[in-house]
Amino acid sequence: GAVVSQHPSWVICKSGTSVKIECRSLDFQATTMFWYRQFPKQSLMLMATSNEGSKATYEQGVEKDKFLINHASLTLSTLTVTSAHPEDSSFYICSAQSSGRGNEQFFGPGTRLTVL
Amino acid sequence: DAKTTQPTSMDCAEGRAANLPCNHSTISGNEYVYWYRQIHSQGPQYIIHGLKNNETNEMASLIITEDRKSSTLILPHATLRDTAVYYCIVRVAEYGNKLVFGAGTILRVKS
User: Fold this and answer.
1) Which residues of chain A fall below pLDDT 50?
2) Chain A contact set for B46 (CB, 8 A)
3) CA distance linking residue A41 with residue A92, whole number of Å
Protein backbone atom coordinates (compact mmCIF):
# COMPACT_ATOMS: atom_id res chain seq x y z
CA GLY A 1 0.00 0.00 0.00
CA ALA A 2 0.85 3.72 0.12
CA VAL A 3 1.79 3.99 -3.53
CA VAL A 4 2.21 7.30 -5.30
CA SER A 5 2.66 7.43 -9.05
CA GLN A 6 3.87 10.18 -11.37
CA HIS A 7 3.36 10.59 -15.06
CA PRO A 8 5.34 10.96 -17.18
CA SER A 9 8.54 9.53 -15.74
CA TRP A 10 10.55 11.65 -18.12
CA VAL A 11 9.81 14.33 -20.70
CA ILE A 12 11.82 16.33 -23.19
CA CYS A 13 10.32 19.51 -24.54
CA LYS A 14 11.26 22.58 -26.51
CA SER A 15 11.84 25.92 -24.85
CA GLY A 16 8.64 27.93 -24.57
CA THR A 17 6.27 24.99 -24.33
CA SER A 18 4.27 23.93 -21.29
CA VAL A 19 4.56 20.58 -19.58
CA LYS A 20 2.05 18.93 -17.25
CA ILE A 21 3.12 16.39 -14.63
CA GLU A 22 0.56 14.25 -12.81
CA CYS A 23 0.83 12.91 -9.28
CA ARG A 24 -1.60 10.24 -8.11
CA SER A 25 -2.08 8.51 -4.78
CA LEU A 26 -3.15 5.02 -5.84
CA ASP A 27 -4.44 3.43 -2.65
CA PHE A 28 -5.26 6.27 -0.30
CA GLN A 29 -6.79 9.70 -0.36
CA ALA A 30 -4.64 12.76 0.13
CA THR A 31 -6.04 16.21 0.73
CA THR A 32 -2.48 17.48 0.81
CA MET A 33 0.26 16.81 -1.69
CA PHE A 34 3.64 18.43 -2.05
CA TRP A 35 5.81 19.26 -5.05
CA TYR A 36 9.59 19.23 -4.87
CA ARG A 37 12.36 20.00 -7.32
CA GLN A 38 15.82 18.49 -7.24
CA PHE A 39 18.82 19.63 -9.24
CA PRO A 40 21.79 17.29 -9.80
CA LYS A 41 23.79 16.53 -6.67
CA GLN A 42 21.47 18.66 -4.55
CA SER A 43 18.79 17.91 -2.01
CA LEU A 44 15.06 18.16 -2.57
CA MET A 45 13.66 21.67 -2.49
CA LEU A 46 10.02 22.12 -1.62
CA MET A 47 8.20 24.17 -4.24
CA ALA A 48 4.62 24.19 -3.04
CA THR A 49 1.92 22.55 -0.96
CA SER A 50 -1.06 21.40 -2.97
CA ASN A 51 -4.41 21.44 -1.19
CA GLU A 52 -7.45 19.64 -2.58
CA GLY A 53 -10.16 22.10 -3.50
CA SER A 54 -8.16 25.22 -2.73
CA LYS A 55 -5.20 27.20 -3.95
CA ALA A 56 -1.69 25.88 -3.55
CA THR A 57 0.73 27.43 -1.11
CA TYR A 58 4.03 28.31 -2.74
CA GLU A 59 7.41 28.53 -1.06
CA GLN A 60 9.30 31.79 -1.17
CA GLY A 61 10.95 32.37 -4.50
CA VAL A 62 8.74 29.97 -6.47
CA GLU A 63 6.72 31.69 -9.18
CA LYS A 64 3.11 30.62 -8.91
CA ASP A 65 2.28 31.78 -12.43
CA LYS A 66 5.06 29.65 -13.86
CA PHE A 67 4.41 26.52 -11.84
CA LEU A 68 0.65 26.00 -11.92
CA ILE A 69 -0.71 23.49 -9.44
CA ASN A 70 -4.17 21.96 -9.54
CA HIS A 71 -5.44 19.51 -6.93
CA ALA A 72 -8.87 18.70 -8.28
CA SER A 73 -9.49 15.41 -6.48
CA LEU A 74 -8.35 13.52 -3.41
CA THR A 75 -6.03 11.36 -5.49
CA LEU A 76 -4.66 13.68 -8.16
CA SER A 77 -2.50 16.78 -8.22
CA THR A 78 -0.95 18.25 -11.34
CA LEU A 79 2.02 20.55 -11.82
CA THR A 80 2.23 22.49 -15.06
CA VAL A 81 5.52 24.14 -15.95
CA THR A 82 4.49 26.98 -18.22
CA SER A 83 6.75 28.43 -20.91
CA ALA A 84 9.53 26.10 -19.89
CA HIS A 85 13.14 27.17 -20.32
CA PRO A 86 16.37 25.18 -20.05
CA GLU A 87 16.89 26.36 -16.47
CA ASP A 88 13.64 24.57 -15.55
CA SER A 89 15.26 21.25 -16.42
CA SER A 90 15.21 19.27 -13.20
CA PHE A 91 13.86 16.23 -11.36
CA TYR A 92 10.34 16.97 -10.12
CA ILE A 93 9.02 14.84 -7.28
CA CYS A 94 5.62 14.82 -5.63
CA SER A 95 4.52 13.40 -2.32
CA ALA A 96 1.14 12.66 -0.81
CA GLN A 97 0.24 12.69 2.81
CA SER A 98 -2.11 10.13 4.26
CA SER A 99 -3.95 11.04 7.41
CA GLY A 100 -4.69 7.39 8.06
CA ARG A 101 -1.05 6.39 8.25
CA GLY A 102 0.38 8.59 10.97
CA ASN A 103 0.79 11.55 8.64
CA GLU A 104 3.74 10.06 6.80
CA GLN A 105 4.45 11.38 3.36
CA PHE A 106 4.84 8.95 0.49
CA PHE A 107 6.78 10.00 -2.55
CA GLY A 108 6.33 9.41 -6.23
CA PRO A 109 9.16 8.10 -8.41
CA GLY A 110 9.87 11.52 -9.88
CA THR A 111 9.70 13.08 -13.34
CA ARG A 112 12.83 14.05 -15.21
CA LEU A 113 12.18 17.23 -17.25
CA THR A 114 14.64 18.29 -19.91
CA VAL A 115 14.00 21.54 -21.75
CA LEU A 116 15.94 22.01 -24.95
CA ASP B 1 18.02 26.90 8.43
CA ALA B 2 18.38 23.13 8.68
CA LYS B 3 17.24 21.72 11.99
CA THR B 4 19.41 18.64 11.70
CA THR B 5 23.07 17.94 11.06
CA GLN B 6 24.33 14.73 9.53
CA PRO B 7 27.73 13.53 8.32
CA THR B 8 28.24 14.10 4.62
CA SER B 9 29.06 10.49 3.86
CA MET B 10 29.71 7.11 5.42
CA ASP B 11 30.92 3.73 4.23
CA CYS B 12 29.70 0.38 5.49
CA ALA B 13 30.69 -3.19 4.70
CA GLU B 14 28.00 -5.40 3.24
CA GLY B 15 26.35 -7.53 5.91
CA ARG B 16 27.42 -5.28 8.74
CA ALA B 17 25.20 -2.87 10.65
CA ALA B 18 25.09 0.69 9.32
CA ASN B 19 24.70 3.31 12.04
CA LEU B 20 23.74 6.74 10.76
CA PRO B 21 23.83 9.57 13.29
CA CYS B 22 21.77 12.74 13.31
CA ASN B 23 21.97 15.76 15.59
CA HIS B 24 18.82 17.76 16.26
CA SER B 25 19.74 19.76 19.35
CA THR B 26 16.97 22.35 18.86
CA ILE B 27 14.15 19.85 18.50
CA SER B 28 10.86 20.91 20.05
CA GLY B 29 8.79 18.75 22.33
CA ASN B 30 6.16 18.04 19.71
CA GLU B 31 8.53 17.36 16.83
CA TYR B 32 9.11 13.86 15.59
CA VAL B 33 12.29 12.52 14.00
CA TYR B 34 11.71 11.12 10.51
CA TRP B 35 14.12 9.20 8.33
CA TYR B 36 13.84 8.90 4.57
CA ARG B 37 16.27 7.62 1.99
CA GLN B 38 16.70 8.32 -1.70
CA ILE B 39 18.28 5.88 -4.06
CA HIS B 40 19.77 7.51 -7.13
CA SER B 41 17.19 9.01 -9.51
CA GLN B 42 14.22 7.79 -7.47
CA GLY B 43 11.76 9.44 -5.13
CA PRO B 44 12.52 9.35 -1.39
CA GLN B 45 11.39 6.31 0.56
CA TYR B 46 9.99 6.52 4.08
CA ILE B 47 11.99 4.44 6.57
CA ILE B 48 10.87 5.15 10.12
CA HIS B 49 9.90 7.87 12.54
CA GLY B 50 9.71 8.34 16.29
CA LEU B 51 9.06 10.84 19.06
CA LYS B 52 11.08 9.71 22.08
CA ASN B 53 10.91 5.95 22.31
CA ASN B 54 13.11 3.71 20.24
CA GLU B 55 11.32 2.33 17.21
CA THR B 56 11.86 -0.72 15.03
CA ASN B 57 10.27 -1.91 11.83
CA GLU B 58 11.16 -4.29 9.05
CA MET B 59 13.60 -1.85 7.53
CA ALA B 60 15.48 -0.30 10.41
CA SER B 61 15.70 0.71 14.05
CA LEU B 62 15.64 4.26 15.36
CA ILE B 63 17.42 5.05 18.59
CA ILE B 64 16.62 8.45 20.12
CA THR B 65 18.67 9.76 23.03
CA GLU B 66 16.89 10.50 26.26
CA ASP B 67 17.33 14.27 25.82
CA ARG B 68 16.11 13.87 22.20
CA LYS B 69 18.98 15.98 20.89
CA SER B 70 20.30 13.23 18.66
CA SER B 71 19.31 9.96 17.12
CA THR B 72 20.78 7.04 15.22
CA LEU B 73 19.26 5.09 12.37
CA ILE B 74 20.43 1.49 12.33
CA LEU B 75 20.27 -0.77 9.29
CA PRO B 76 21.06 -4.11 10.95
CA HIS B 77 22.48 -5.97 7.95
CA ALA B 78 23.34 -3.55 5.19
CA THR B 79 23.20 -4.74 1.59
CA LEU B 80 24.44 -3.13 -1.60
CA ARG B 81 20.88 -2.00 -2.31
CA ASP B 82 20.97 0.15 0.82
CA THR B 83 23.43 2.51 -0.88
CA ALA B 84 21.52 5.79 -0.90
CA VAL B 85 21.26 9.28 0.57
CA TYR B 86 19.67 9.14 4.02
CA TYR B 87 17.77 12.15 5.30
CA CYS B 88 17.01 12.87 8.95
CA ILE B 89 14.16 15.39 9.33
CA VAL B 90 12.40 16.79 12.38
CA ARG B 91 8.79 17.78 11.97
CA VAL B 92 5.59 18.20 13.89
CA ALA B 93 3.44 15.22 12.94
CA GLU B 94 0.37 17.19 11.97
CA TYR B 95 -1.44 16.70 8.72
CA GLY B 96 -0.33 19.27 6.18
CA ASN B 97 3.05 19.90 7.73
CA LYS B 98 5.81 19.86 5.16
CA LEU B 99 9.08 17.97 5.17
CA VAL B 100 12.19 20.12 4.74
CA PHE B 101 15.15 18.15 3.43
CA GLY B 102 18.74 18.90 4.36
CA ALA B 103 21.81 17.55 2.61
CA GLY B 104 21.57 14.09 4.13
CA THR B 105 24.23 11.39 4.48
CA ILE B 106 25.50 9.46 1.48
CA LEU B 107 25.79 5.85 2.64
CA ARG B 108 27.96 3.62 0.48
CA VAL B 109 27.67 -0.09 1.19
CA LYS B 110 30.68 -1.95 -0.14
CA SER B 111 31.22 -5.64 -0.77
Assistant:
1) none
2) 2, 104-107
3) 14
